[in-house]
Prior knowledge:
Layout: E1 4-8, E2 15-20, H1 24-36, E3 41-46, E4 66-69, H2 78-90, E5 98-103, H3 105-117, E6 123-128, H4 131-137, E7 142-147, E8 150-157, E9 162-166, H5 175-192, H6 194-201, H7 214-231, H8 249-259, H9 266-283, H10 289-301, H11 314-323, E10 334-337, E11 343-346, H12 351-359
Parallel strand pairs: 2-9, 3-4, 3-5, 5-6, 6-9
Antiparallel strand pairs: 1-2, 7-8, 10-11
Helix pairs in contact: 2-3, 4-5, 4-7, 5-6, 5-7, 5-9, 8-9, 8-11, 9-10, 9-12, 11-12
Amino acid sequence: xxxxxxxxxxxxxxxxxxxxxxxxxxxxxxxxxxxxxxxxxxxxxxxxxxxxxxxxxxxxxxxxxxxxxxxxxxxxxxxxxxxxxxxxxxxxxxxxxxxxxxxxxxxxxxxxxxxxxxxxxxxxxxxxxxxxxxxxxxxxxxxxxxxxxxxxxxxxxxxxxxxxxxxxxxxxxxxxxxxxxxxxxxxxxxxxxxxxxxxxxxxxxxxxxxxxxxxxxxxxxxxxxxxxxxxxxxxxxxxxxxxxxxxxxxxxxxxxxxxxxxxxxxxxxxxxxxxxxxxxxxxxxxxxxxxxxxxxxxxxxxxxxxxxxxxxxxxxxxxxxxxxxxxxxxxxxxxxxxxxxxxxxxxxxxxxxxxxxxxxxxx
Length: 363
Ligand SMILES: NC(=O)c1ccc[n+]([C@@H]2O[C@H](COP(=O)([O-])OP(=O)(O)OC[C@H]3O[C@@H](n4cnc5c(N)ncnc54)[C@H](O)[C@@H]3O)[C@@H](O)[C@H]2O)c1
């Protein structure tokens, strides 16, 4: 198995990301090693995929707890945090135990938060099964659950021990979910690596699970995220740092909120958000109209929407932007582009301009 390894440098908490076709075998080997050392292992997954698209059914794992939550964003609820912790306790998982999170970003965020809290922290491993989780949520140690007052409001920074990215899982991922993950892939090129953007732009065939470039593309995204996270683990940098990963996200959160959660997949809202960030950058003279068109072409080639499907009230979008938890001192911060490959955080954007930019996404 040809495996790419990307290291996330965080002194005592550094870890490796293994990317390969068949990397879930490496995850299984890591779980077996722990069991052989008499350290218990639990798997956390969700009902849409466990036993259908993914399975860790080796005889060695027969006695390991498998905690399978419901499918969808709703699974990131406090009730499931309690359920997972109680099932770990019932299975007598002690401090030497570990959780293997097998699933998309929902499972990874929930299981990671349980691992951060159970017995004040046990080891955990990420085995992402969606493109979004492979290039984004499984790396960097943000874990969280939702409460009625907001998404990801309760969580912890808690790094995994390792991440195993098996691109074979992508073979069963619905195309719409794959495209949503591609929005995050395009984001990396735009915010920090022009050559990487051009690699995506010049692909002969659209990226897919069996595309010869798939492992390389995921590894490049992970490298960039690893570098940003190593430099600014807790998003405290004043001049960009981890906040750059929010390219398109200030717009996206407003879109998801105003259109009603679930109407747009997160990656779809990010795609529209990236387009709006590009238009705003051009409007402020930071980027050429030609580059805006290139970005639009790449997003469309990846089946990522660049406009709203149905009209959304601009007043509602603006109001949602004001409530965004990433807004500082009441002003929304935007990641804009000083050309392709160069993201910058800009505060104090005039609301009149924000309105004008939102209008450009109307269908
Ligand atoms: N922690 C972070 O840094 C971070 C970053 C970005 C997003 N997130 C979080 O990630 C979550 C979204 O993650 P997601 O997009 O992976 O959603 P998800 O986990 O809900 O998965 C999307 C859908 O794909 C299905 N699926 C997963 N793997 C599959 C496979 N191999 N084959 C077929 N179907 C499969 C799932 O059942 C689900 O229906 C959100 O909760 C978001 O807040 C976290």
